[in-house]
Design a protein that fits this description.
The structure is a single chain. The chain has a 7-stranded parallel sheet with strand order 3-2-1-4-5-6-9, with helices on both faces. By secondary structure, it is of the alpha/beta class. The chain has 9 helices and 9 strands. The protein is 40% helix and 17% strand. It starts with a strand and ends in an 8-residue tail after the last helix. The longest helix is centred in the middle third of the chain and has 21 residues.
Length: 241
């Protein structure tokens, strides 16, 4: 099995890599990145030889982008999209929209043309294209765009706040993690913060077992699964594998 991971050095992406690298079914993981990371920084030792990091300029012209990603996606059984940022990191709403919406849709369209059948994406709790909140609106528009591309199977994961060690310092999230760390059960499951490892585990489970016969309860689409935060909050990773 060959898999591509977009956003492989982020909080969820690096946990997806750790799991994929250890699976005997996976022989290669295509990882397009701005800068090739140190595997020690990612904490990946077992199965590291499977990880194929390719440096790419995401600002290059469309033709060069299509050629690069098409070549990387050909032969992949699945693409896992963990791309995302914050407005603070991006610098503006327009820059965040480019990373959270336009880039994933552009790359997913290339993946479809390359013959990828199984697409998986980290969305967000409250994703809604008509939401008054900018971030939720972006994620809703992303989900609608992925629906239109028409993959054979589509997995969307909608987490609340992600727990884990971010590359950048996030004071509010650090404070919340310390506050609720001892008693997460005090927060209702549908909004409870979840660990990035849990999100990654659900993504990898859907890589191994695509929702081919699943019918999405929200819109009746066959082959589409939405994994809501209440499911993530009540998941024990050992039960998934």
């Amino acid at each position: 099995m060959k898999v591509a991971v977009l956003g492989s050095t982020g909080l969820v992406g690096k946990n997806v890599l750790k799991l994929l690298a250890r699976l005997p079914q996976v022989v290669r993981v295509f990882c397009p990145v701005r800068n090739v990371p140190d595997l020690n920084d990612l904490g990946i030792l077992e199965g590291a030889s499977k990880l194929d990091f390719k440096q790419v300029d995401f600002e290059q012209d469309d033709d060069a982008m299509r050629l690069f990603f098409y070549a990387g996606f050909v032969g992949c059984d699945a693409v896992v999209c963990c791309l995302g940022t914050t407005r603070k990191q991006a610098g503006s709403k327009a820059a965040q929209e480019k990373i959270d919406l336009r880039l994933p849709l552009k790359l997913s369209a290339i993946a479809k043309k390359a013959g990828v059948k199984n697409f998986l994406c980290v969305s967000a709790m409250g994703a809604d294209s008509h939401s008054p909140y900018f971030y939720n609106r972006l994620k809703g528009q992303l989900e609608e765009g992925l629906d239109m591309i028409g993959f054979e199977t589509l997995t969307l994961v909608r987490p609340s706040l992600l727990l884990g060690k971010h590359k950048d310092r996030r004071f509010g999230e650090d404070l919340l993690q310390k506050t609720i760390g001892a008693h997460p059960e005090w927060i209702p499951a549908y909004v409870r913060p979840v660990h990035a490892e849990t999100v990654a585990a659900h993504l990898v489970t859907s890589v191994l077992k695509p929702p081919t016969d699943h019918v999405c309860a929200s819109d009746g689409t066959k082959g589409k699964r939405i994994i809501y935060n209440r499911v993530l909050a009540n998941t024990k990773i050992d039960d998934l594998f």
